[in-house]
Amino acid sequence: MLSEERTLFHDPQLCSACGFCAIVCAYRHYGTLDPDRGRIHPLLSLELPDLVAVSYCSHCKYAFCEAACPSDPKAIYRDPATGAVCIDPIRCIGCRSCVYACPVSAPRYIPELHVSHKCDLCGGDPLCVKCCPTGALQYLPRNEIRRLVEAS
Amino acid sequence: MVETRERVSVAAKAGVFWGCYIPALQPFAEAAFRLILDDLGLSLSDVRGIACCPSPFMFKILDYEYWLETARANLDAIASDFRAIVTLCNGCWDSLLHARDLVENPPEVLHIAEFLIGLRNALLKRIQTPLQNLRVAVHVGCKPRSKPSLVDAIHELTALTGARIVNWRTAKICCGYPLFLAKPDEALETRVRVKVEDVQQVGADAIVVVCPACFMLLERGQLVLRRKGLRQTTPVLHLVELLALALGHKGQEIGLDAHAIKPKALLESIG
After folding, report:
1. For residue B177, what are the contacts with CB-CB under 8 A and spacing of at least 6?
2. What average pLDDT does range B133-151 have in this prediction?
3. How many C-beta atoms lie closer than 10 Å to residue A152's C-beta?
4. FRET label pair with A96: which of A11, B170, B260, B270, CA 20 to 30 Å apart?
5. Tens of pLDDT along B249-261?
6. Higher-confidence position of B51 and B18
7. Which positions in chain A have a beta carbon within 8 angstroms of at least one beta carbon in chain B?
8. For residues A127 and A121, what is the distance between their CA atoms, to the nearest angstrom?
């Protein structure tokens, strides 16, 4: 059931824009500390420092990125174990359709590798959540996320 | 002297985990805490025979399991001698706190503000130099934000000194320490410069922190930024230094003259 699947939840009130999520993500997936290689992106706006936005994949039930992927077979697929919407870098042709299709541009294009990449939930144990120093990032069931959003 | 029951429950079974930065780079924070303990008539033993906490930022990146296992080993060693452990560092507090679930009969892991807030009445009685002329910006750091009561304790202890706490827009923004590991220039420009200029705009005399990593970035970062157009610098104080000043200790006694940004004007305003 989709409601039992877990996904990322970010609390902008708790986030301090430390950027650690992007750094640990980049190191986990690419062995680099460059936060630009992370699959999660904190966005610090100095006009609204109280609300730090983070661009990350919500692993949508009806994923626009998956629908937009033109490669055959599709490079974007759903991991049945975690419900994560993932990109297979071997099948990806680097067309960036997923980047443009996603409402928050969660997939990012890597020019050097000529592929797009996005969050894969670290196989169901997201490191960014474990490492978040403020507890702003959580890995929660979708119905719990819905309840939190509605309560806020 | 602190009430007998309070002294026994706190001092006899508690130790101090100094961490790495404070003994090596910020001995004034250690001096200030020792002065506070002396004033309260408390004696806490130093924890010995332990490794680095280890640093939750660098070690979590490299190997999360290694970070947790080292923290567990530290807490295991501490558990044989102490019922509670006090840390002056957000990072040490975070590492040891995470390891509590992995240790049998773990000691209580107390952030310095959690420890001192339990002694608020004793501290209040001993305030000799209320710092009412001082306007301070409190930066609690990232990790205490996960525990609202700790954030409140940090503010309450700051207010207890008599200093006026200013509101500033970027109070919740990180000091830049984790980003500094990856992109030092970006961390200095988009975190340290932004925060320091904000503090200066609201007219604060000092930034008060509870973490040596925040202290290092916000203080040393200003020295680098001064070469890149930062017009003025603002002193950074550890919470225990502020408390020691309010308890009547002189700057030289604490070691404030060893700060990279000398809080000269601040000391003159205290008198």
Report:
1. A18, B57, B187, B213, B214, B216, B217
2. 96
3. 8
4. A11
5. 999 999 999 999 9
6. B18
7. 14, 16-20, 23-24, 26-27, 33-35, 44, 46, 49-50, 52, 127, 130-131, 133-136
8. 8
Cα–Cα distance for residue pair B195/A3, rounded to 1 Å: 41
Cα–Cα dist A129/A135, whole Å:
8
Question: How many other C-beta atoms are found inside a 10 Å radius of the C-beta of residue B11?
Answer: 18
Domains of chain B: 4-117 (3.40.50.1860), 129-270 (3.40.50.11810)
> Tens digit of pLDDT for each residue in A37-64?
999 999 888 777 777 889 999 999 899 9
- On chain A, the residues whose CB falls within 8 A of the CB of B177 are 18
What's the gap in Å between the CA of A70 and the closest CA on chain B?
A: 35
pLDDT band per the 50, 70, 90 thresholds, residue B193:
very high
Q: CATH classification of A57-118, choosing from 3.40.109.10, 3.30.70.20, 1.10.486.10, 3.40.50.2000?
A: 3.30.70.20
- ipTM confidence: 0.89
Q: Count the Cβ atoms, other than its own, within 10 Å of residue A62.
A: 6
Going from N- to C-terminal start, the domains of chain A cover 57-118
Contact (CB<8Å) B146/A14: yes
